From TrEMBL:
Cofactor: Zn(2+)
Gene name per UniProt: LOC117573245
BP GO terms, sorted: proteolysis
GO molecular function, one term: aminopeptidase activity
GO annotations of cellular component type: cytoplasm; extracellular space; plasma membrane; side of membrane
Protein name: Aminopeptidase N isoform X1
Keywords from the UniProt entry: Aminopeptidase, Glycoprotein, GPI-anchor, Hydrolase, Lipoprotein, Membrane, Metal-binding, Metalloprotease, Protease, Signal, Zinc
């Protein structure tokens, strides 16, 4: 039965029961202003005094959202010292006059001795979460003591530290101590490297249930409060403070006698009674996944239970993974698929049992968990959940990010995420090149060696290295740590170029930094070298099952390889994208690959991942200026016959990117004919959409239809017209919306001004009862799809010049951003030039909007014509750009580079398109 907290329900304040009293604490229910002092390397503690164990009791005041507690820390002196440094959040109240410490009589093992040490005072280090206890005497090395600290603090409404939440008018209480939130709850050594056992007890209302890392040992009646009990839990194994956690609620234990589980650990689920009928499939899934992970690691985790809590409303982006206690939001837990649960369960081994020594290795722990979760899920469902997008989606985004002149320059928070993704791909590379068996045994050895301990990156790589040398899957002169360090040394990726000598049957392999964004003026790029596994396949003996490298490019810029096939036989390097790098070939090898893939037998012999890689590499290398666009476009010809969605995934990105680059030129109409040539056969073969079908089929149908519509494919345009007319003829169009919203763009691009005006009226009359996302999508289509200047001019006049009340500043930002695609920025630049004085005055006090307007109007031209127009504006309005001066200067530089690209490549593309279209 749920419990509702009201003032009249609790008549007493809670009291301490272990010989200490409650200290009043200020109630703080939401924002913690001192959270700015986050723990970093400057907050690391000295190693002169070390924890051996913790004993903690908590007395929450559930009504007031405060708590009091007492912690007893068993300490050992590693060096002589008369002070103790530990972590304590600024919100945690500590009365230094009540701190006690006594020495342990080590001769007799008496932890309750009366040999007290005088405590002079306790104080905080300014702007750090460190609390220092000063002692009257120096404690000698080797001494062990018990330090007792009473404390009190706040239960937060934000999901960090000790927090509270609610569901269906019922309150729950929980902890989220990752990364460094344990010191919000109790004074401690809040670093992952300090792993010690915990003994924990907590007071709770009788009608609620308390869960902890370990099982309940016993419950006793509260000596002063009849409606409360005290729960005492079993002693934990050694663990880091961030894995400590408890949960208090009215949720019930899910029981299903039809399910047989194993003896260690027992997996228990907690949920609302009404949700029990939804849980059988999820419970079976969790048990199955746990067994798969256990089999991979070769060992159980050393806990007797794992509690999995299904919380109806958990205000967190990801679950809380305490050791032995997982807190999931209901929606996340019941979601279809295996990956999320697999990922969280892996943290029970890697993250809790075996833990990074410091947070700079947390990305490695995350990458290992992510890779293993993906590998296990692929084995369990054959790739259904990933829909062919793993690892390609991650890999392609990394290729793009690391090929920029300044990676992460726009979103600095992306940096750690991309580092983790790259690490995951390096792990995938090792899983192939060292062999799956050596990789797995290496991880098993690693867990056994570092159980209850912490590790740094070198420890993990050494485990893989030792096993691979033992198995002979790594040559004696190679070292895993040396190999991977070259992949982590730069925020870059390499590209390998293969130049074959068809007469001598040899090849030269050259590596360099992969740079796509121009100019390629990255400092010290010549010094960047990688240890690269060269996995080679040849047409006269195709075999894609082996991950063993033909050889390694051992940190060398160039190597020669012998025994290449005959001159009419192609080779493929880095098949299946085993390592994260693109490969370039000479034109003859590219031509042989293109011809082979256009045959039915050829496509059957080369797996989908490799077909996708060849296509992706070709057009990216063309954009980088390392390959002729004629060769890249030749590689797309087999797509007309391709029916595997894995290969199709990168096609739409290619069409979009090249389409944007040539949108301003006369070549664009020819390119649209080419798009129809490629996509129409596949689109016509796709069955009509049904209620239940594979996700890939739905995705491909939608994308194919969208790009065909934008290319002017007549059947698609006609279908769009029919859907749009139904909307126009509805009784109340403001309360309707086309179910297939991708039909809007072709109508606004190819349709009449009248139809476009109808869409604009729907935005201006948009009812508040509808989803705001629908209005956003409609406005983006109105701005980003049309090519006719009159539509763009009318939209800008209403929204920008007339400052219509229906459009907010956020709408204006959205419109300007949408206008940067295609050739609409010509209309935008003309609009800015014509209305310069009015716009400058209007945005005088809105510099963000002014800067965005100037950037959108000047920054996206790709030809000399666009350069001349922007240059003319800068000359005419010299000194009038104000805060946007640096923006137009950057625009000119970028357009100059893009102009070079256009001058070099558009004639090549046009010539290729002319030849293709003349022969179809």
């Amino acid at each position: 039965m749920g419990i509702k907290w009201h003032a009249h329900c609790i008549l007493h304040l809670l009291f301490f029961i272990l010989n200490f009293q409650t200290n009043n604490a200020a109630v703080k229910r939401s924002i913690d202003m001192s959270a700015a002092y986050s723990l970093n390397t400057d907050d690391r503690l000295p190693k002169s005094v070390l924890p051996i164990s913790y004993e903690i009791h908590l007395e929450p005041n559930y009504e007031e959202c405060t708590f009091s507690g007492l912690i007893k820390i068993k300490l050992s002196w590693a060096a002589d010292s008369k002070k103790i440094s530990l972590h304590a959040h600024h919100d945690l109240n500590i009365n230094d006059r009540k701190i006690k410490m006594h020495k342990i009589n080590q001769k007799y093992g008496d932890e309750n001795s009366t040999d007290y040490v005088a405590v002079l005072r306790g104080s905080r280090i300014p702007k750090k979460n460190i609390y220092v206890v000063y002692l009257k005497e120096t404690i000698m090395q080797g001494t062990e003591c018990i330090l007792e600290i009473p404390f009190d603090g706040n239960i937060w409404s934000s999901a960090e530290g000790f927090f509270t939440g609610s569901y269906e008018n019922t309150t729950y209480f929980a902890t989220n101590l990752r990364l460094n939130n344990a010191h919000r709850l109790f004074p401690c050594f809040d670093e992952p490297g300090f792993k010690v056992p915990f003994i924990f007890s907590i007071t709770r209302p009788k009608e609620l249930v308390a869960l902890f890392n370990t099982p309940l040992n016993q419950s006793t009646e509260h000596p002063k409060l009849n409606e409360y009990v005290i729960d005492f839990f079993e002693k934990t194994p050694p663990m880091s403070t961030f894995t400590f956690g408890f949960f208090i609620s009215a949720l019930q234990l899910y029981k299903n006698t039809n399910i047989t589980t194993f003896s260690q650990p027992i997996i228990q689920m907690w949920t609302l009674k009404d949700d029990e009928n939804q849980l059988e499939e999820t419970y079976i899934k969790i048990v199955t996944i746990y067994n798969k992970i256990k089999h991979y690691f070769g060992t159980h985790i050393p806990l007797s239970k794992i509690d999995v809590v299904c919380i109806p409303d958990l205000p967190l982006a990801r679950p809380v993974d305490n050791w032995g206690l997982l807190l999931f939001g209901k929606r996340d837990l019941l979601r279809k698929g295996l990956y999320d649960i697999t990922h969280e369960l892996i943290y029970q081994w890697l993250g809790s049992w075996v833990t990074p020594n410091w947070w700079n290795d947390a990305h490695l722990n995350k990458a290992i968990a992510s890779f293993l979760a993906s590998d296990i899920v692929l084995e369990m469902d054959g790739g259904v959940e990933f829909n062919g997008k793993y690892p390609m989606t991650t890999l392609y985004s990394l290729y793009y990010e690391f090929s920029k002149r300044y990676p992460h320059s726009r979103i600095t928070g992306m940096k750690q995420e991309t580092i983790s993704h790259k690490t995951e791909l390096v792990l995938r590379m090792l899983n192939f090149t060292l062999s799956k068996k050596s990789f797995q045994i290496g991880i098993r050895n690693f867990i056994l060696e570092y159980q209850y301990k912490t590790f740094c990156g070198d420890d993990f790589w050494e485990s893989l290295n030792s096993q691979s040398l033992k198995d002979g899957t790594l040559k004696p002169h190679l070292n895993v740590g040396v190999i991977v360090n070259t992949w982590f040394a730069y925020h870059r990726l390499p590209v390998v170029k293969v130049l074959r000598d068809y007469t001598e049957k040899t090849a030269i392999l050259q590596q360099k930094v992969y740079l796509r964004e121009r100019p390629h003026d990255v400092p010290e790029q010549e010094k960047m070298l990688w240890w690269i596994p060269i996995l080679l396949n040849r047409q006269d003996g195709l075999n894609f099952s082996s991950g063993c490298p033909y050889l390694w490019m051992e940190n060398k810029k160039q190597i020669n390889i012998q025994n290449m096939p005959e001159k009419d036989q192609f080779i493929i390097i880095n098949y299946e994208e085993i390592a994260p790098f693109p490969v370039n070939y000479d034109n003859k090898n590219w031509k042989m690959l293109s011809d082979f893939l256009q045959t039915d037998n050829g496509r059957k012999q080369i797996p989908p991942y490799t077909r996708a890689k060849l296509l992706h590499d070709a057009w990216n290398l063309a954009f980088a200026g390392d390959l002729s666009f004629s060769a890249a476009l030749n590689m797309t010809l087999f797509i007309k016959y391709e029916r595997n969605h894995i290969v199709w995934n990168p096609v739409f990105t290619f069409i979009d990117q090249i389409g944007r680059h040539i949108d301003e030129s006369e070549v664009h109409a020819k390119f649209e004919s080419y798009v129809i040539f490629l996509l129409a056969p596949f689109y016509e073969e796709l069955d009509e959409e049904v209620s239940i079908e594979d996700n890939w089929k739905t995705d491909i149908r939608t994308l194919t239809k969208r790009f065909l519509c934008l290319a002017g494919y007549k059947p698609c345009i006609n279908e769009s017209e029919q859907i749009f007319e139904i909307w126009q003829n509805t009784t109340n169009p403001n309360h309707e919306y086309p179910e297939a919203s991708h039909y809007l763009c072709p109508i606004f691009k190819w349709g009449s001004l009248e139809k476009w005006q109808f869409g604009l009226e729907r935005v201006m009359q948009f009812p508040k009862s509808r989803k705001l996302s629908e209005r956003t999508h409609l406005l983006k289509a109105l701005a980003g799809c049309p090519t006719q200047p009159e539509k763009i001019e009318r939209l800008l006049k209403i929204t920008i010049l007339e400052d219509h009340s229906n459009f907010t500043d956020n709408d204006k930002f959205l419109i300007l951003t949408s206008l940067t695609s295609g050739s609409s920025h010509y209309s935008l630049l003309n609009f800015v030039s014509t209305n310069w004085m009015t716009l400058r005055q209007k945005f005088k006090n809105k510099t963000n909007l002014w800067d965005h307007l100037i950037g959108s109007a000047t920054g996206f031209f790709l030809t000399q014509k666009g350069y001349n127009m922007v240059y003319k504006l800068i000359e005419e309005r010299a000194g009038e750009f104000d805060s946007a001066q640096h923006i137009v200067e950057k625009s000119l530089r970028n357009i100059k580079e893009e102009t070079k690209w256009s001058e070099e490549n558009i004639p090549v593309i046009e010539k290729w398109l002319d030849h293709l279209l003349a022969n179809i």
